[in-house]
Amino acid sequence: MGWNNVTIEPVLERMVEATSSAMVWVAIQDYFAQHGFDRVIYADLRGKVPVILDTYPNGFDQYYADVCNPRDDPFFRYCCSTLSPKQTGADYLHHYDYLSTSERQVILAARESGMRSGFSCTFHKSDQRGMGGWNIGSTLSRSEVEAIQAEHGVHLRVVALYAHERMQMLRPQDGAALGPALSARERDCLAHLASGLRTQQIADRLAIKPVTVEMHIRNAREKLGANTREQALAKAISRGLLTL
Q: Which residues contact 113 (CB under 8 A, 6 or more apart)?
């Protein structure tokens, strides 16, 4: 499918140049599809008006509503309870024996529309204000998805989180301040992290200790109000503090 040659820069440029959240949504759909992910759901349930977008075939929404109770969707109940990626889709159903019959029905309904396997990317854990995240799914098999995820998982999550930040920024009611600037070392560490380097490799590249790298990344996360490294990258890019 050619996803080994897909890079992050073109989709970031498209989203930076986008003037509406709809344009961002089109860009992220194309990017995911190029990687083999054609059953994607984006849900931000924190505002007065929930935002739910998906790349499922026409008619799935009604089918989903007819055969499932959306409140039983295990994505919201389990995936949005953690920032760590969780595998999703019918190909993983045998791993989740704790699911109720109605929760399993949601996954099987998605399978009828082609969703076999994928992974979650949460940007807001469930709390009294709501929840939000991506279910990045595919019609590909579990083994194919895991191979793609192993090679491109970090970039897929960063792009998803950036798309959320960009769509949120383009909504009229959202006007968050840019926040404090990052130091040069914090930007360096995030830039090397975005390129796929690990902590030790970043330390070697910058001639500093690994613990210092961790400190710079932690400081950057705190300044940006990010819960994870990937979210810190997405926020830094969306605010023009980091270019790739």
A: 39, 56, 57, 60, 63
Condensed to tens digits (0 to 9), the pLDDT of residues 163-186 reads: 999 998 887 544 444 456 777 888
Residue tagged 């989709």 (tokens): 11
State whether residue 24 is helix, strand or coil: helix
Cβ-based neighbours of 159, under 8 Å, separated by 6 or more: 8, 11, 12, 28, 31, 234
Residue 180 to residue 241: CA distance in whole angstroms: 10
So where are the chain's domains? 3-170, 184-238
Contact 18, 166 (CB under 8 A): yes
- Looking at CATH, the fold of the domain delimited by 184-238 is given as Arc Repressor Mutant, subunit A (1.10.10)
Helix or strand run (H / E) with residue 157: helix 142-170
- CA torsion sign for 135, 127, 230, 93 is negative
Q: Is 139 left (phi over 0), alpha (psi -120 to 50) or beta?
A: alpha
d(CA 109, CA 152): 28
Sign of CA dihedral 187, 190, 192, 195: negative
The rounded percent of the chain whose pLDDT value lies above 70 is 91
